[in-house]
Amino acid sequence: MLENELSLRGWNWGTAKFYGSVLGFDIDSKTCFEIPLNHVSQCITGKNEITMEFHQNDDAPISLLEMRFFIPSNELAGDLDPVEAFQKQVMNRASVISVSGDAIAIFREIQCLTPRGRYDIKIFQTFFQLHGKTFDYKIPMSTTTLDPPIKQGQTRYHFLVLLFGQDGETLIELPFAEEKLKEKYEGKLEKEISGPTCEVLGKVMKTIINRKLTGAGGFIGHSGTPAIGCSFKAAAGYLYPLERGFIYVHKPPIHIRFEEIASVNFARSGGSTRSFDFEIELKSSTIHTFSSIEKEEYGKLLDFITYKDDFGDSDNEAEPDAYLERVKAEGQERDVDDKSSDADSTDEDFNPNQEESDVAEEYDSNHSGTSSFEEGSGGGSGGGSGKILASIHIEAYCTM
User: Fold this and answer.
1) Residue 343 DSSP SS3
2) SS3 letters for 1-26?
3) Global pTM?
4) I need a labelling partner for 295 at 20 to 30 A (CA). Which of 38, 59, 113, 122 fits?
5) Contact (Cβ atoms closer than 8 angstroms) between residue 39 and residue 57
6) Where are the alpha helices (DSSP H) in 165-240?
7) 265 strand-pairing partners
8) What are the CA-CA distances from residue 46 to residues 69, 75, 76, 152, 225 (Å)?
9) From CA 344, how far away is CA 228, in angstroms rounded?
10) Contacts within 8 Å (CB) and 24+ apart, 366-371
């Protein structure tokens, strides 16, 4: 048995040595740790720095995903860059997605909002590649989300957000014969595909991945678009009500499925009657607040929520709604308190269609098309601030 003395000093400065397919880190000629290079998925260079990324272990609760090495400049190396030499040694033994064969399709200079930059998108049979001036990513087709996320420096991105011009069109020619296209893709792709860039890219990706693409859905807001202009924290963006959830773009991209939602709430936006907030509470108790929504969008969004609330679980339709019963009981108690209180303390109902006034207003709790509202008396948080104006409870029994 070969005994190897290990370094227990705990230093982070030492010598990196390559032993075949293993990278060793030695301190005072004693081994500190070793890294099998076949676990490395990517190696990225920086100024005097190397970043090694590792394959994620789905079976382990905690796994190492990244390790960074600082490599000082060496004047004796001459024209040889020690950082590039180190990367070359790692990549020769690393288990990375290799580019072999011709790309099925290439889309040039596509503007990407997340991560920011312009990239050439090259689509291969098992992965697609984002090639930019500084960063290069290879994303397997088998992944449904970017897990692990792609990175730029210390920033991680779980979504790709691409921006296409309305007038942008493209023409691509696939490197296959007509017979092979019919055999391999069942006639879903033609040898030449032309049209808007977003549609061509979506068609190619949908056919290769063989998964459904989710569009904007049937929601049309007051502005005539399938999105609602709003803000999330300090960033302005757009909230898209979809057939099976909501998605917000683009800082940061947020995807919320209906089955994750516990309840939604309409609230006054900072005391202004010109806009309102839309709050989504998840079953995990996380609350996403989308603010500064124009009051003209209130009716459209309310109708959408009410319509989606009808998609309940048929097995539980006969069961009583404990939440609704509790809200009714609280409403009756408030009605009793209102009758015994001074009439001057009661706020007027909010009507989005009325002109702005100095009187405290609340959203109309008797809006047609919903039975989920109960009349309240000036807000539930006490005093005249009354941020919560109306709420709709969603059991999220959506049929998918």
Assistant:
1) helix
2) CCCCCECCCCCCCCEEEEECCEEEEE
3) 0.57
4) 113
5) no
6) 178-185, 197-209
7) 279, 391
8) 10, 18, 20, 11, 43
9) 37
10) 367/299, 367/302, 369/302, 369/303, 369/306, 370/302, 370/305, 370/306, 370/309
Quick one: tokens of 367? 């809006």
Which of 4, 5, 3, 30 minimizes the C-alpha distance to 15? Answer: 30
Tokens coding 59: 């079976």
From residue 312, alpha-carbon distances to 179, 260, 306, 383, 399 in Å are 47, 14, 11, 36, 7
Residue 254 phi/psi, 5° resolution? -130, 125
- Which strand (E) or helix (H) includes residue 294? strand 287-294
Q: What is each CA distance from 81 to 73, 77, 239, 338, in whole angstroms?
A: 8, 7, 48, 79
Residue 49 and residue 153 in contact, taking contact as beta carbons nearer than 8 Å? no
Task: Pull the structure tokens for residue 181.
Answer: 């296209």
C-beta separation of 69 from 16 below 8 A = yes
Question: Mind spelling out the 3-state secondary structure of 230-293?
Answer: EEECCEEEEEEECCCEEEEECCCCEEEEHHHEEEEEEEEECCEEEEEEEEEEECCCCEEEEEEE
Burial of residue 37 (CB within 10 Å: 0-12, 13-18, 19+) is buried
DSSP 366: T
Per DSSP, the three-state class of 361 is strand
